[in-house]
Structures are given as C-alpha cells and as structure tokens.
Amino acid sequence: GLWGKTVTTTWKETSGMLTAYNFGVKADNEIGIEFVGNSTGSVGNITSNGNILLGGDINMGSVDIISTAGNISHLDDATVISDDASFKAVTGIDVIQKNVSKDLHLNAVSDSGAINIQAIAANANINDVYIDNVSTTGSVSITAEGDLLNGKTDGSNCLTGNGITLQSYNGSNW
Description:
This protein is mostly beta strands. The protein has strands at 43-48, 52-54, 58-59, 62-67, 72-74, 80-81, 84-89, 93-98, 104-110, 115-120, 128-135, 140-145, 147-150, 159-160, 164-169.
C-alpha cells in the first residue's frame, strides 16, 4: 500500500475576474433606416409586415415600398424622390412623391385604406403627373404640382376609390 510512502503534488493556482455584459433590444421598437442612393441608377425595395413610417427623404432611381399588413405614411415633409416609385399597403398610403428627370408616374394600391398623395413634378420642362394605377376601396386624394393626367395609354381606368379628390396647382386636370 501507500502507507509509509511520500507523495508530492504541485499545482498552480490562477485567479482572475471575468466580466460579462448582456444587452437587449426590444423587438417591437421602431428602427430608423436611412436610404442614400443615386436618383438615376439605384434600386430599392422596402417590404414590411407592419406599418412603414417614412421619417426622411428616400432618393432612389427606382423604389417599391410594400406593407403586407399595415400602412405607409410619412413624417413632416419626408419625400420619395424617384422617377419610378410604387406603393402597396393593406390599410392606407399617405406619401409625398417627387420626380427627378422624367414625368412623374403615380402607382399606389391599398386594399382598404385611404390613399393620399402629394405629387410634385419637379422639372422645369416636365411638369406632368401621370396616374398609372391608384386604387383602393377607401378614399383617394391626389394633390399635384403640375398637369394631372391619365397614365394609361389605352384610356382605361387608372383611378378607383370611394370618394376621389383631385387638385392640380400650376397645371390642369384631365
């Protein structure tokens, strides 16, 4: 046995400190996103299953903004600056849209909410605002700075809603 034998054991003891931090973000908080693009070549697609709140300008060559279960709205004078923009929402659309270098075309579809568009034809030589497809079962209000025209070349219906208001400043209504 081990009786009467000497066993020597050595060990090294190290002490220290560990600091751990845990951070969290509430999942339903609003997230601010900035879209910085070139107004003639960039492409943007914004899709959400909730409301979309535009808190600043979006400057894109082409942009599609889609809310699959909510609405699209803007704060103050936040503007979508694009020659090719479209909006689709379930419960309403309230946007300011401005063109860059081509005619301004309006494309906005809502399943049930009101559609309100402030359209700014921003070019000195081109002040045409074409309604290509604006449709909802709610009310429609379009205020345009420029000529307000039917965007359908075949003359078919480009605008549907339950109560429609069209206003044109510095232009004409078709």
